[in-house]
Amino acid sequence: MASNASVVDSRRDEKTSSCDMSPKSPHHFLLQTAVALVAACSTQLTPLPALAVSGAVSGAPAPSPAVVSGAPAPSPAVVSGAPRVIDGDTLQIGDARIRLYGVDAPESKQLCQDRQKKSYECGKIAGEKLAEKIGKNSVSCEVKNKDQYGRTVAVCRLGKEDLNEWLVKTGNAVAYQEFSKDYIAAETAARGAGKGVWQGEFQIPKEWRKDQKAAPNKPVTIDHPKGCDIKGNINSKGEKIFHVKGGQYYEATQIDKSGERWFCNDKEAVSAGWRASQR
Q1: What is the DSSP pairing of strand 90-93 with strand 96-100?
Q2: What pTM does this model have?
Q3: How high is the pLDDT of residue 54?
Q4: In which region does residue 159 sit, left (phi positive, over 0), alpha (psi from -120 to 50) or beta (all else)?
Q5: What is the DSSP string of 42-84?
Q6: How big is the CA angle at 89 (ends 108 and 91), to the nearest 5 degrees?
Q7: Rg (CA), the chain
Q8: Which of 44, 139, 154, 160 is at 20 to 30 A from 57, Cα to Cα?
């Protein structure tokens, strides 16, 4: 029995020695080796970027490209050059037909009345005044949009001066309030001072166009001032000829077309560009 007890104790000693972690045991040596290997490998790991780690932890969204880039808003298109004046609110620069934004000038064939109730070519004058203002200079036009006719709608400047506003301030155009409120103050000032079309009576250009479209063949009614009986006629060739009472064609001549007018004396007719009838 002593012999069997000795065997059991011997096995118990082996089992205990297999988990021996004393400094001199083989297991202790293996453990130290493993720890050393882990430490060596950890020094070679590449750390994640701080931003990536932060984003992963916080869940913060990536910044917007617009915020990151700080890109400015696109500048409005500009058309520049020495223009040709088409009428009181229209310019031609190269291939661009430009309709002045926020203003409406009398049409080229439109007539107005001055303080003495005399008819005059306010539409033609508006175009002439604009041409005189610009001269041979270049203008810069900031594009707003396109109108229904495909024209470029723009604010045009001569140097730093707003030509659109200038037209309204001088009474050569009205504020086109249907499309812009920018020039209402300029119109109010021109009206109060009796400038341009505000010196007498006239039809708002938009209403004049509407009437012309409704009755395109209707004769133009031109006032006949008392005592002014000379007829300033424009013939089929575009020649301006005036007729006095007693002349061969006086009775047959009708003053009913845009641009025709009555004169009070020969000198007035000649100064306005008419010549006397030879008959």
Answers
A1: antiparallel
A2: 0.55
A3: 37
A4: left
A5: HTTPPPPPHHHHHHHHH-PPPPPHHHHH-PPPPPPPEEEE--E
A6: 105
A7: 46
A8: 44
Q: Which two tokens stand for residue 55?
A: 């984003």
84-105: pLDDT as tens digits: 999 999 999 999 999 999 999 9
Helix, strand, coil percent values for the chain (each to nearest 5): 35, 20, 45
Residue identified by tokens 């000829």 is 241
* Ramachandran area for residue 246 (φ above 0: left; ψ -120 to 50: alpha; else beta): left
pLDDT tens-digit map of 154-199: 999 999 999 999 999 999 999 999 999 999 999 999 999 999 999 9
- Measured between alpha carbons, how far apart are the two ends of the chain, in Å? 169
CA separation for the pair 187, 175 (Å, rounded): 6
Contacts of 245 (CB under 8 A, 6+ apart): 229
Percent of the chain past pLDDT 70, that is, above it, reads 70
